[in-house]
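Figure S7 source data.
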Amino acid sequence: MEISYWVSVVSIVLLFLVSGSFSIDNFHQAFPIVEPDPGHTKLRLSREGLEAISRITTPIAAVAVIGPYRSGKSFLLNQLLSLSCYEGFGVGHMRDTKTKGIWVWGTPLELDIDGVRTSVFYLDTEGFESIGKSNVYDDRIFALATVMSSVLIYNLPETIREADISRLSFAVELAEEFYGRVKGQDVAFEPAKLLWLIQRDFLQGKSVKEMVDDALRHVPNTNGDKNIDQVNQIRDSLAVMGDNSTAFSLPQPHLMRTKLCDLKDDDLDPIYVKKREQLKELVASVIRPKIVQGKPLNGKEFVSFLEQILEALNKGEIPSTGSLVEVFNKGILERCLKLYSERMGKLGLPMPEQSLRDAHERSREEAMKAFDEQHFGRHHAKRSAEQLDEEVKEVYKNVIMANEYQSSKLCEALYTQCEDRMDQLQVLRLPSMAKFNAGFLQCNQSFERGCIGPSKANYEQRMTKQERWSSIQFYRLRVLESISK
Ligand SMILES: Nc1nc2c(ncn2[C@@H]2O[C@H](COP(=O)(O)OP(=O)(O)OP(=O)(O)O)[C@@H](O)[C@H]2O)c(=O)[nH]1
Ligand SMILES: [Mg+2]
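Tokens for the predicted magnesium ion complex:
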């Protein structure tokens, strides 16, 4: 009795765990949404954080904080959310674990943005440049945060270094690929607004704007150094994206770095507290819901968007904007392929080969035009267009086969009819040659009218052979008849 009781308890618990149906009842905590895989090179989704997001039915916006490791990202997020280190994101010195992957605070801030109630999630990310992981991993975290968020806070402990600019190459590529209008359409996908946050008042008399402008100014490259050239190019693009980036500085909250978590607002530097409040207002004033293809995403859609993006970023050795463009274009590509298939499906088969070719060309052009009008991406969309063309060809091959099959079925039936008719005419007693020929002519005419498509030529040959063979047979029978008389 006792054993069977425990067996059933254990099975219920196991069933519960396997089905994954237990739900979180306290969202006042931080959850991982993305975690490193065991090799610490790729990323994988984490269920709890996604559950916190997918329950939201209003449009979603996200603020992500990125930056070098141990630069105070988690502490800053707690400050922005008015949380102590003990309830909010894990802060370095007090917990063994530093931030791994990407975390979300389970309860979004509700904001009214242009009259629309929006849930703003705050995301904490794993710091760059810590030992024991690859640059590619850092790039994946960075790329994911850039694509997911509406405001990307680049937290810098001191100043902007060359490496920080280089890291933005992905954001720049992304912006170049997605910004602006695609052939008269509304902005299809807007990457995050960049907020340079310089911590610790390291400005030495410069304003933070001057500092960012200085960092984005071209560096002379008299020796034609390739690396300087590359960073200069990123600087140019960042300058072009100018209105999409802002700079802000925060002084040290307190000199006692390791005691920060135990200090209340009254103990912190009043200038820090004042500027922190200004930063909250700044974030609230620039944030917008995440729009994908002209539509704000609710929680569930945001999660599925995240799943697709993550899959694309994990693809291949390095995260690339090309694979992201493919993700965005996937749905459009499927719709255009469906349009082609529907057009071709309406054709009455069998039909002559040339007419089928013409119909294919017309439908293909229509599908390619629809794709051209709706697609994402400036440079990488070509790949998706080529893929659509390939998939159209595959469907066309099947239509050709169906046409061949229908044509041969129809012609075969007509041919067999003629064959039977000829057999009947041959065996009739005393049929005249004229009657025989008239019978064949009638049969041939209905064959010519009825047999359509690629099998026609083949069956026409067979008809000619049959005519010859039937005539011979006809004479043979007549000769035999006259002998027997
Ligand atoms: N002096 C000073 N220390 C800070 C500041 N912000 C955070 N710290 C301290 O820096 C240490 C690391 O802070 P975290 O917030 O965990 O840093 P992080 O960037 O999230 O670190 P990772 O998750 O490992 O990348 C902690 O001891 C914080 O108390 C700051 O603005 N000034
Ligand atoms: Mg952290």
